[in-house]
Amino acid sequence: MATYHLIEDDDRILVGLSGGKDSLLLLELLAKRAKIDHPRFSVEALHVRMENIHYETDTSYLQSFCNALNVRLHVKTTSFEIGTEAIKNSRDARRQKQPCFLCSWNRRKQIFNLAQELGCNKIALGHHQDDLIHTALMNLTFQGRFDTMPALLKMRKMPLTIIRPLCMIEEQDIKAYAEQQGYQKQKKLCPYETDSHRSDIKRLYDAIEQMNPEARYSIWRALNADNKLIEE
User: Fold this and answer.
1) Which of 80, 130, 217, 229 could disulfide-link to 171, CB 3.0 to 4.6 Å?
2) Is residue 145 classed as helix, strand or coil in its secondary structure?
3) Quick one: which H or E segment has residue 81?
4) Peptide bond into 39 cis (omega under 30)
């Protein structure tokens, strides 16, 4: 929060709550942090159900989780048909037959719309440091550019800022904490979870860490030095 100035007084934050360990931790940390006077901010959560992708989170568990934190939970249901979305951006159009892209694109629409309806100015997503590093390697390998999902991203077409407060936390630490806290796992995982370039990049990154256990910090320093973690 301090390094990248993610939260300020009077922020209204909508958390994307998928039900995975990352989003559960994000909501828990933000809800507890909101009880401290400075900075002064409020938190709500949104869980999006996707009708035609067969993975599932126990909504009653999410509701009880939010109740314990005194956070209001919103639940939206949506769906998509492959190849039918009106996506005009040429790069996005090339990818529109990929279920992972369409699922993410439709979820983002739901959270952007609700955030504006509620008067929220920030959206918090649960990407951790491993996610950002893997994204940087994917972009370098497949797109020919060095960048990643920034810790802070101010949207150009709407009055919203995306923040990723877990960006400096390693995935292994989140796993350990989730087990310690007894977070309930998702009932059904996404069928496309292991069928993507991201899975390939994760295996590549694991091999890189075998060669150099400090690789994480080298890549992170490079992202910082190139101003890739804040986009205003």
Assistant:
1) 130
2) coil
3) none
4) yes
